[in-house]
Amino acid sequence: MKRGLLLVAASLLSGCASFSPDGGFERVQALAQERVGVQPRRVAYEAEADSVAAELTRLLAAPLTADTAVRIALMNNRGLQARFAELGIAEAEFVQASRPRNPGFTYGRFSQGDEREFERGLLFDLMWLITLPARSEIEQRRFAQTQLEVAGEVLRLAQATRQAWFSAVAAQQTVLHLEEIVAAARAAAELATRMAEVGNFSRLRQQREQLLYAELAAELARARLTAVRSRETLTRLLGLMGTQRDYVLPERLPELPAAPRDEPEIVRLAMESRLDVRLAREALAGLARNLGLTRSTGLINVLEVGWLNSTSNAAPVKRGYEIELRLPIFDWGAARVARAEALYTQAMHRVAEIAIEAQSEVVEAYMAYRAAYDLARHYRDEILPLTERIAEEGLLRYNGMLVSVWDLLADARQRIQGELAATLALRDFWLAETQLQMAMNGKGAGGLVLSGGTPVAEPASKAH
């Protein structure tokens, strides 16, 4: 009996899972590379931290692009690094579940008169050994689910970083446009003041120009605060401190792509690769396996076997074995089985619900993407050329003394306002493109509200 138990234990130990060299991080890297084109880096040792610091210095030496920002966030964001530790926790639980419980050893010493008796026993949890393969498979599925969850966090951080980068660049560009508008309004207000002083301009018209300048100056102050907040949001996602915060952003947003993406292909790819759909399916499979385990152990969940040895100075050595079986008198396991079945039914319906929501979210994200693309293209191809031609025609008419300086200033403001609205439309497109990419990868893309125009206060020339 003793030899048989030892052989069983040895065979089970040979099939135990071991820790992987990368702790499951390679799968997370592969998923991130496939979806965002960047592999995250895990920082667990001082040498890795020094390598990341050197890489940061190199990347921050040039103006920060959207792709570079994502690369920095995926290796320097502290919250993401903390999530990576969950991989080690999940793998440790998987390895622990794949190993049998340690055997128990009992020792007893008894005396009766001159007789001395010594009893030794070795106990094994036989039920645990029987269900060990199923338990190991369940924890392996949980480990795989954790990998998908961590990969989803990587994708969400990449999306948030790209959106923060586009918002920061657009906010910086908005400030430049508003500074041009404010400069034109200041010149108009100063000219109106001088003309009013010599009696060539009414006080009412002069005050309207002054009000326009004051309102635009306030708008510029708000835009500067928005630019600071947008930059700080990006800085937090990048995990930068100290002199690293002095990074440089490009002056302009990237240009609009030549053509939008095709909707049917996007929906098909999304349903095949969304991480939340894959995660739900794996969770359902794990519950199905768990349901089988619960049913198999519903009646008997404690079964121990042990080898016993008893020696006495007054009798021959006694050897034998002992089996402990928990009798199902009060608890027949029906509650555990019913609970497992209910959990499986719940998960089955949730998988269907997630699939429905996923398709709807992708379609919604694509419609926002397409609307943003069409609007940005409309500003680029229609509105901006018109404002440029109006400004050029106004200058020609002014040189020919056919229009006043106020008309010229109004045309200049209108042109800059058109450039500002086009910038916001282009920003909305890139935000929509990022959200569409996230909708294709997993839940959490959020909705997009397209920006309206940025009307400037009514110029005094319109009230003449």
What gap, in angstroms, lies between the N and C termini? 110 Å
CATH class: Mainly Alpha
Name the CATH homologous superfamily: Outer membrane efflux proteins (OEP)
Helix content: 55-70%
Helical stretch tally: 12
Major sheet attributes: 4 strands, antiparallel
Describe the protein.
- The N and C termini lie far apart (110 Å).
- The chain has one domain: Outer membrane efflux proteins (OEP).
- It is elongated, with a radius of gyration of 36 Å.
- It has twelve helices and four strands.
- β1 and β2 form a beta hairpin.
- The longest helix has 66 residues.
- By secondary structure, it is an alpha+beta fold.
- A four-stranded antiparallel beta sheet has the order 1-2-3-4.
Keywords for this entry:
464 residues, alpha+beta, Outer membrane efflux proteins (OEP), four-stranded antiparallel beta sheet, 67% helix, disordered C terminus
Mind sketching the topology for me?
Layout: H1 2-14, H2 25-36, H3 46-59, H4 66-76, H5 78-97, E1 104-112, E2 115-125, H6 126-130, H7 132-197, H8 203-238, H9 263-273, H10 275-296, E3 303-312, E4 315-325, H11 334-399, H12 405-441
Helix pairs in contact: 2-7, 4-7, 5-7, 7-8, 7-10, 7-12, 9-11, 10-11, 11-12
